Predict the structure.
Amino acid sequence: MSDLPTRLDLFNIGRSYVKSRAARIDPAQIDITGSDVNLYVGSNSVIGAELVNQLNAAIATLFLETAENDDLDRYVWDRYRETRKAASPAYGVVRFYRDVATAGAGSVPLGTKVGTKTGIEYVTTTVATFDTTDTVAYANVRSTQAGKAQQAGQNAIRRILNPALLWDPSLKVNNDAATAHANDRELDSVFRERVRDFWLSARRGTLSAISYGARRVPGIYSASAIEALTTDAQPARVVNLFLADESGIASQAISQSVLAELMEWRAGGIAVIPYTCNVQMQKITYKLQFIAGVETAPVVDKIRAVTAEKVNTLGGNETLMRSMLFSILEMYKGAGLIPSQDSIVEPAGDIVPATGYTIRTDLTNVTVL
């Protein structure tokens, strides 16, 4: 809180008092470093500054925008009865397969451990059942540990940790799609943003409430609720819910957790059908102008990094607005940038993703001409 006095402000208050009220000492002594009065007023200004800092920190815990860490947790619980999402595991689907079906019918039980070559372990949460002639069966899996590091890319889960325990030890495993929803403990900024939607969703049963309820599930970063309509544009009593994690993708393996949470959020008699989102990469090109004499390279690097960061906060089905890109450029006017509408070469207009897609970008796709 910048309005509170600094140590120098407090020293100047003491200095002014000495200058105007001192009768038994030379007032000029206050400006002599190391003099008794200089040390006395200076040391008290330090103590006063510490008290101000303590007051500043205490006041900060009383507001959503300034509370941090445990203070933010206490604030939100006290006023909203909401808790921060802990680190979440990764979810996905694996394919068990075999070359021949000579072992006959059987199943891969719950709790079977599979993993990647890099040591990330997953456990099956559904049963993969083979009929007599089946060579392929599918099961949902969840990582045994939580955190972003537990995410596995496509075709990364290739190991069955104890194949000898299965009825058919010749089984192999693979994940045809990357796992999703692994995340670290919810950041303060993300927690605040989610809590801001609390009152908008308090009535429940609305589209915003369904979206809010889904985002309470660990691993769900974005949830876009869209009402399904009949051919004559009337409500079909169905809500399509597009889910995504922080990277913009999702797995059907988390759907049951979302549906269980939505029992408290959707309206009675309204079906919610979860869909997984996929990533739609977007190229962004700037043509920038600067004031003469400005060192442009550091500013360009910051603009590219901030652009990638901001675009990657978009939710499923959310439009990338040119106005958002322009607002990023305006942040750097003080650094010598001269922003204009011509500064944004691509996209030429707002980008509306295909249904079920999340717009994402990276530094290789953010270029400056």
